[in-house]
Design goal:
The chain is mainly β. The chain has no helices and six strands. The protein is globular and about 30 Å long. 25% of the residues are buried.
Length: 91
């Protein structure tokens, strides 16, 4: 599933603007600059990529150290700071 976002937050990096994140089984498999709509693409305002596979709130994700070996998991975050994993298409 492809998720397009206005802001992509990766561990220990400045946010990237207008990016696409490809997620399979909850794991980020690729990310790249937005270059046009794709079939089955969902728009999410902000995406937070984290090495934490069970984050529950934004504070579980922010200020995370970069780790090259571990997979990244994608989350959208509600206004209340609740982390929502991007495992299935958003409704």
């Amino acid at each position: 599933m492809y998720y397009a976002t206005h802001k992509l937050h990766l561990p220990c990096r400045e946010p990237l603007k207008m990016y696409v994140v490809e997620v399979r089984a909850g794991v980020v498999v690729s990310s790249f600059p937005f270059d046009g709509e794709r079939q089955s693409m969902v728009w999410v305002d902000e995406i937070f990529a984290s090495h934490n596979s069970c984050a529950h709130k934004l504070s579980d994700i922010k200020n995370e150290a970069a780790q090259e070996v571990q997979p990244l998991y994608a989350y959208s975050v509600s206004e209340q700071g609740i982390a929502n994993p991007l495992l299935v298409p958003l409704k």
